[in-house]
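Project outcomes to date are best conveyed with an example. Our students and postdoctoral researchers have been running inverse folding experiments weekly, and each run begins with a structure described purely in tokens. The record below, which covers 144 residues, was selected by the lab manager from last quarter's runs and is presented without edits.
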């Protein structure tokens, strides 16, 4: 004699499944940002004087204001200056010049590589926006 056995979900099983599904949705919403660096931007747009080379030594960083917006500069070698927004991609705090390798956000500890703006430590979901620069004489120009 065959018996059909029907299992009904328990309250504990339904609650556990709901919590697991909610956790998956939450993690998917929090993650997924592009923490890697964006492509090197081209020098289009308007060039603004950001600083002088003499004020930005090799391996040095600077925070500069242009038209009411703040930008971070890093000079890895004699002929290169890199520029990024100083707005943290986590919650919009002002990112500081940081340590020898990273720009650091004082609000929640996000860190960004000075070499390409990529996230090296979260909670920031994506890299800092990068801007084209040029060196003209002793002037460092940023293209916005």
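After processing, the design step wrote out the following sequence:
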């Amino acid at each position: 004699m065959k018996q059909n056995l029907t299992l009904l979900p328990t309250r504990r099983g339904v609650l556990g499944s709901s919590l697991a599904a909610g956790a998956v949705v939450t993690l998917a919403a929090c993650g997924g940002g592009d923490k890697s660096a964006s492509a090197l931007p081209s020098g289009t747009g308007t060039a603004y004087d950001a600083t002088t080379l003499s004020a930005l030594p090799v391996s040095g960083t600077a925070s500069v204001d242009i038209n009411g917006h703040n930008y971070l500069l890093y000079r890895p070698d004699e002929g290169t200056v890199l520029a990024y927004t100083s707005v943290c991609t986590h919650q919009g705090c002002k990112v500081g010049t940081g340590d020898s390798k990273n720009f650091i956000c004082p609000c929640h500890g996000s860190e960004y590589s000075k070499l390409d703006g990529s996230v090296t430590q979260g909670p920031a979901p994506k890299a800092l926006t990068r801007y084209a620069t040029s060196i003209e004489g002793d002037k460092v120009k940023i293209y916005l």
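The domain at 47-143 is CATH 2.102.10.10 (Rieske Iron-sulfur Protein). The chain is about 15% helix and 35% strand. The training component of this project remains on track.
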